[in-house]
């Protein structure tokens, strides 16, 4: 046992979760964080129509499963077998901040049918053990023990504007895992900029006054985010839809700039 000092033993029990009073599972996917969404209701598993599933619902479920955030593109998923579970929910309505899917509005199916290739599926970034229902043993001075979950620091996220005239204008840079990187301008919008300005404590500049996309030169290091899509009400850029962290098809010549007004 002495040779295992400093190591952790993780027994992850995360293939499904009981979300509030609604058990849920992902099936037919390549990992436990990807697949067709099925919920257990009235003792039977059922699917959800894709037309009634959106990114807000995906964000809630990915978070509840301990799988980070949803990827930008819709999740492809193999359809159920002919004798697979029926569609039991027509749509799920979430705001995105709910602690569990059971806190969203769940509408029972009221349409005659839902095509099997139009079933709700999610593709989350990946496993985040601190969010899972996991059992973790860590070695301490007195032997193996259960760690206090509160002692695990939250993954740091930072945001700043660099290369500009002040803290409210510049090249957008975000911090992930202690490393600063840039954001690609693919799909960048005024709603995205509004979220950034608010998060920095700056004031938004009306889009009609900005003209062309502002540039503050290429950055260095990782390009952390691409295809960011905000609605404008998010409290942090982290909550906007985007590709998985570090996945992009950009160069630093496409690093996005943001101009806000000083508070």
Q: Which structural category fits the helices and strands? A: mainly beta
Number of helices: 3
Q: Which CATH architecture of the largest domain?
A: Roll
CATH class of the largest domain: Alpha Beta
List low-pLDDT spans.
1-20, 128-140, 143-154
Domain SRCR: 24-125, 159-261
Organism: Anas zonorhyncha (Eastern spot-billed duck)
Protein name: SRCR domain-containing protein
Disulfide bonds: 94-104, 230-240
What can you tell me about this protein's structure?
The longest helix is centred in the N-terminal third of the chain and has 10 residues, at 55-64. A hairpin with a 6-residue loop joins β3 and β4. Strands 2, 3, 4, 5, 6, 7 and 8 form a 7-stranded mixed sheet that branches. Strands 11, 12, 13, 14, 15 and 16 form a 6-stranded mixed sheet that branches. This protein has helices spanning 55-64, 190-199, 207-210; strands at residues 8-12, 16-19, 22-27, 34-41, 44-48, 87-93, 105-108, 121-123, 134-140, 143-145, 157-166, 169-176, 179-183, 203-204, 222-225, 257-261. Residues 1-20, 128-140 and 143-154 have low confidence and may be disordered. It is elongated, with a radius of gyration of 21 Å. The protein is mainly β and 263 residues long. The chain has 3 helices and 16 strands. The N and C termini lie far apart (57 Å). InterPro entries: SRCR (IPR001190), SRCR-like_dom_sf (IPR036772). This is SRCR domain-containing protein. One of its GO terms (cellular component) is membrane.
């Amino acid at each position: 046992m002495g040779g295992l000092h400093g190591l952790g033993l993780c027994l992850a029990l995360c293939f499904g979760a009981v979300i509030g009073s609604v058990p849920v599972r992902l099936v037919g996917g390549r990992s436990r964080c990807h697949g067709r969404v099925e919920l257990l209701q009235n003792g039977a598993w059922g699917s959800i129509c894709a037309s009634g599933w959106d990114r807000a619902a995906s964000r809630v479920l990915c978070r509840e499963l301990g799988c980070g955030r949803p990827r930008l593109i819709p999740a492809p998923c193999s359809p159920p077998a002919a004798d697979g579970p029926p569609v039991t929910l027509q749509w799920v309505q979430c705001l995105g901040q709910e602690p569990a899917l059971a806190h969203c509005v769940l509408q029972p199916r009221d349409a005659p049918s839902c095509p099997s290739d139009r079933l709700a599926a999610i593709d989350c970034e990946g496993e985040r053990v601190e969010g899972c229902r996991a059992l973790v043993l860590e070695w301490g001075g007195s032997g193996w023990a259960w760690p206090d979950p509160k002692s695990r620091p939250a993954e740091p996220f930072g945001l700043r504007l660099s290369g500009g005239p002040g803290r409210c204008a510049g090249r957008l840079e975000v911090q992930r895992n202690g490393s600063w990187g840039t954001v690609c301008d693919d799909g960048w919008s005024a709603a995205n900029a509004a979220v950034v300005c608010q998060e920095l404590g700056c004031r938004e500049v009306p889009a009609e006054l900005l003209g062309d996309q502002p540039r503050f030169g290429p950055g260095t290091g990782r390009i952390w985010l691409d295809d960011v899509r905000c609605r404008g009400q998010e409290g942090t850029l982290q909550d906007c839809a985007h590709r998985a962290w570090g996945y992009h098809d950009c160069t630093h010549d496409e690093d996005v700039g943001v101009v806000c007004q000083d508070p």
